[in-house]
Prior knowledge:
It is elongated and about 65 Å long. 66% of the residues lie in helices and 0% in strands. The protein is mostly helical. Helix 1 packs parallel to helix 3, helix 3 (45-57) runs antiparallel to helix 4 (61-70) and helix 3 packs parallel to helix 5. The mean pLDDT is 82. The chain has ten helices and no strands. It has helices spanning 10-23, 26-39, 45-57, 61-70, 76-84, 88-100, 107-114, 123-135, 142-154, 158-167.
Amino acid sequence: MHLGSVTPNNLTYLGLLVACSGLQELQEGRQIHGLLWNLGIQSDLCVESALKDMYSKCGNVKDAWQIFDSAQDLDAVILLSFAKDGFEDEAMQFFVKTFKEGIQIDPNMVSAILGVFGEDTSLGLGKQLRSLIIRRRFNFNPFVSNQLINMYSKCKDLEEAIKVLGSVQSYTFYIKL
Length: 177
């Protein structure tokens, strides 16, 4: 492509990174990352997200984490992709780091991090998150409330799950047919 008449752009590189992710081609992905670095477009939010996704899907948590550390814009999409790729502990660490650095936490981020809770996750951390949710008034967000109920259920604290369900003022149930 570089030798031809077509000039690649961000979308071209994003497509290549997605292909590397799907095929788990770490070496090719690294080569593209190097090229992006040389072109100065590695800090574009979409490119950062695609790089993180590629590294994590290729099983390279160290490089995925470095992308997070260098990211200029951190958001729920990146956090959720970490969790979705099976790196729940890293997602938790990322959330805590984001919070400690004073980066604005929004309902989408809280909803995403609540989704990584499971049976073996600290219920204490979940209760701290609930305090944050109440202080920031995220408990009126139906997605946050739903994830909070799920978190308590997964952590086997059904009494708290029922309390949260009872406190939800307007609740919509989605039935999947």
